[in-house]
Write a structure and sequence with these properties.
By secondary structure, the protein is of the alpha+beta class. It has a single domain (about 5-85), classed as Herpes Virus-1 (2-Layer Sandwich), CATH 3.30.40. The chain has three helices and four strands. The N and C termini lie far apart (about 45 Å). The strands form two sheets. The chain has a two-stranded antiparallel ribbon with strand order 1-2. Strands 3-4 form a two-stranded antiparallel sheet. It is globular, with a radius of gyration of 15 Å. The structure holds zinc ion (2 copies). One zinc ion (ZN) binds near residues 13 and 32.
């Protein structure tokens, strides 16, 4: 009954069991850096939120408003937006 044992089930990525990087804002599951999907969500008043989804929620329009916009053009635009807001694309 140690704290370590207690935490074991929550301290690994839900997808690949790698080290947890963040939690999905859609479903709340823990994801590692490799499985987390970065998205910028517009708030409608000129600001954006940087959020992370798991792979399933990133593709789910109910969870991710950007899921239906997944066209190559949009991805490029998103990268440009990233640069504008000072995020490094590399
Ligand atoms: Zn993972
Ligand atoms: Zn999720």
């Amino acid at each position: 009954m140690t704290d370590m044992e207690n935490r074991q089930s929550e301290s690994s990525c839900e997808i690949c069991e790698g080290p947890v990087f963040t939690t999905c804002v859609g479903c709340g599951e823990a994801v590692c850096q490799a499985c987390a999907r970065f998205e910028l969500i517009g708030s409608g008043c000129g600001s954006v939120w940087a959020v992370y989804y798991c792979q399933a929620c990133a593709m789910d329009p109910d969870m991710n408003p950007n899921a239906i916009l997944r066209e190559p053009e949009e991805l490029e635009a998103a990268e440009k937006r990233l640069e504008r807001f000072g995020f490094s694309a590399s």
